[in-house]
Amino acid sequence: MESTGSAASDPLVEAARERGLPAAEVRAIAQRIAGRVCGDCDACCTIKAVRELGKPSQAACRHLCQTGCAIYDQRPKSCREYACLWRQGYITGDECWRPDQLGVVIDYEPFVRIPGTVLLVVWEIVPGAAESQHVRHAIDQLLAAHKQIKAVAYCAAGQHVRHDFPIDRETYPGDDVPPAPPIFAFDQARGVATYQFRKAG
């Protein structure tokens, strides 16, 4: 969850400048995200893993509080620079399409099986939300607009994924290794590989 502010002072714009992106690209990012703030949404604070905090995926951050993030001004770099695809302006629509309203967090990462392509990752916040008409519509829009997306991974609510860093198990008890391998399929209609991460049984 983050505070409101102008696009010029937005953490995503600041991160783009820090990475040395060309001024025109920084301006394009500022225009794309204008008016998009996390507001009351803190879904990523549970869904996403945070290496610096030893926090696994699908576990509420120990710094979450009633007003949002208790260490917001000192939050780790991975938190400061993270933004879901709605926040980045790639999912069209108003706050109704924000993760806490949509029921899923949608982001992306490199698809290692095909260098230079992208894996879309759909993290359920609400069980079964990935099957909703709104989520299907958002995914279809992304696939149509970004041809480099070659696969979609669906992570069921509460389903942990593997991590390559130590987890603070006193603070975050649980098992970060999936109890079952992902279910692989090929979506002929969309032309993408799909991976379903679900709990066993």
Can you give me a brief rundown of this structure?
It contains 6 helices and 7 strands, in the order H-H-H-E-E-H-H-E-E-H-E-E-E.
Structure description:
Helix 1 runs antiparallel to helix 2. The longest helix is centred in the C-terminal third of the chain and has 13 residues. This protein starts with 10 loop residues before the first helix and ends with a strand. The N terminus is likely disordered. The chain has about 200 residues and is α/β, with parallel strands linked by helices. Helices cover about 20% and strands about 20% of the residues. The strands form two sheets. The protein has a five-stranded mixed beta sheet with strand order 3-4-5-7-6.
- Structural category is alpha/beta
Ends distance: 34 Å
Query: What helical percentage do the residues reach?
Result: 10-25%
Query: How many strand elements?
Result: 7
Mean pLDDT: 89
How many helices? The count is 6
Tell me the Rg in angstroms: 17 Å
Principal-axes shape call: globular
Order of helices and strands: HHHEEHHEEHEEE
Biggest β-sheet: strands ordered side by side in the sheet: 3-4-5-7-6
Low-confidence stretches: 1-5
Strand content: 15-25%
Sheet with the most strands, sense and barrel status: 5 strands, mixed
